[in-house]
Predict the 3D structure of the following.
Amino acid sequence: MIGVIGAGAWGTALAQAMASNGEDVVLWARDPAVADTINDSATNPAYLPGITLSPSVRATSRIGDLAAAEAWLVVTPAQAMGEVLRTAPAGDQPLILCCKGIEAGTRRLMSEVAPAARPRSPIAVLSGPTFAHEVAAGLPTAVTLACADPALGERLVQRIARPTFRPYLSDDVVGAEIGGAVKNVLAIACGVVAGARLGENGRASLIARGFAEMSRFGRARGARESTIAGLSGLGDLVLTCSSQRSRNFALGFGIGEGRTAAELLGDRRTVAEGAFTAPVLRAAADEAGIDMPVTAAVCDLLAGAQAADVIRTLLSRPLRAEA
Ligand SMILES: NC(=O)c1ccc[n+]([C@@H]2O[C@H](COP(=O)([O-])OP(=O)(O)OC[C@H]3O[C@@H](n4cnc5c(N)ncnc54)[C@H](O)[C@@H]3O)[C@@H](O)[C@H]2O)c1
Ligand SMILES: O=P(O)(O)OC[C@H](O)CO
């Protein structure tokens, strides 16, 4: 049996993907009403409308019910992960961390938060181009499964692979996490370009310059170039920077159209992780002397700056060599 912690869009989709071969899945929802609805109707209309869940997905709001699962997929918002893991039942199950973000305040990656909350559990990171609805519908994708222990990583890859869900093994945990966290910030920027009707050229340029930022930050934190250029980095960056289905892109789109970040975030029920990651990323980059102008621009927009002013500032930076 596999446990899934968090019954939002991605947790529910992963539960469905894991259950697609009849595997028993226990899915923890913070809200008892969400767990009841999943068990009563085999749907999660609040977070993943239009998907009928397999009968082998059983939801619970009692986190102790996860004790019997042999591994846990951890799929809470990044800012809540440490707190949720501290309330989970004792044990040494491997944790597959699926949240994409950096903890505010501590500036820790999820792979640093989890062992502090749960020292006996080994960890892996799952990240890549994965819109929840597509994965739940059985459409194909490939992801990075990063684990420092190659034997455990291989075991987990075999355990979670499904015909249309292909994990590629890596030992670069930090690299996999940085791609997932940074692309959310860059997706907000690309959404602004689209919302402000600045054209496809501008969006493609921003993806490439954003990728340069992701690479610089990754290098400084010890990530491998090949990971940043892989599924969890470039793969997810391209996906999230290209579609209104991305919550981060949609947030940026609204800002580009002239609405304020505060107003857009106030309207949200679901998480746009880039809004939390951007200020932490900017602070970490500033401290380390890493140039991240797109990230800084996103922070200014989230703080209420006018899109037109921020775009003008970005475009008037001194010309420089590309590399
Ligand atoms: N949706 C996707 O397509 C997708 C794909 C890959 C990764 N992710 C990542 O997975 C993580 C979860 O995203 P999601 O799409 O499931 O989010 P979501 O907004 O759909 O759902 C968030 C879930 O977390 C719960 N929650 C909110 N605050 C909480 C708290 N303080 N403690 C515990 N639970 C809390 C909510 O009740 C909800 O069940 C994010 O880090 C996201 O970046 C999402
Ligand atoms: O909807 P977003 O922007 O949170 O993106 C979802 C996934 O991370 C895409 O891989």
Notes: The chain has two domains: 2-171, 180-315.
